[in-house]
Amino acid sequence: MAYSENLADRVRTILADHPGVDEKMMMGGLTFMVNNKMCVGILKDDLMARIDPAAYEMALEKRGCREMSFTGKPMKGFVFISPDGTKTKKDLNYWIGLALGYNKIAKASRKRKK
């Protein structure tokens, strides 16, 4: 199992009425794109959230939150949240709300040439 189906269903429920949501398999897990921009994702049992870099340090102080680092270098503006930090609906809504808020001003990544 590459990602938690239970967490994916919980995220789908929250994003159900939000326009412009697409799901993509990415980075060994599931990513939810909003308006063609990475917003949240699931890798194993963790939620990944793309948040405002200005809120990054504050987010790291929250229960279950840690920096996202694939190459050994933290990716500022991206965080992982363990199941301990997404246990309740309120917790999950907080992280998705933070990611959706940033999504409005975030830049889309450049399309790769084939």
Could you describe the 3D structure shown?
The chain has 114 residues and is of the alpha+beta class. It has a single domain (5-103), classed as Aspartate Aminotransferase, domain 1, CATH 3.90.1150.30. Helix content is 27%, strand content 27%. It has helices spanning 5-15, 56-60, 89-103; strands spanning 21-26, 29-34, 37-43, 46-50, 65-67, 78-81. A six-stranded antiparallel sheet has the order 1-2-3-4-6-5. Strand 1 (21-26) and strand 2 form a beta hairpin. The radius of gyration is 13 Å and the shape is globular. The termini are far apart. The model has no long low-confidence stretch (mean pLDDT 92).
List keywords for this structure.
114 residues, alpha+beta, Aspartate Aminotransferase, domain 1
Domain module count: 1
Classify the secondary structure makeup into a structural class: alpha+beta
Compressed to H and E, one letter per element, the order equals HEEEEHEEH
Shape: globular
Spatial strand sequence of the major β-sheet: 1-2-3-4-6-5
Share of helical residues: 25-40%
Mean pLDDT: 92
**Poorly predicted segments:** none
CATH topology term:
Aspartate Aminotransferase, domain 1
CATH secondary-structure class: Alpha Beta
Give a summary of the structure in a few sentences.
The protein is α+β, with helices and mostly antiparallel strands. It contains three helices and six strands; from the N terminus they run H-E-E-E-E-H-E-E-H.
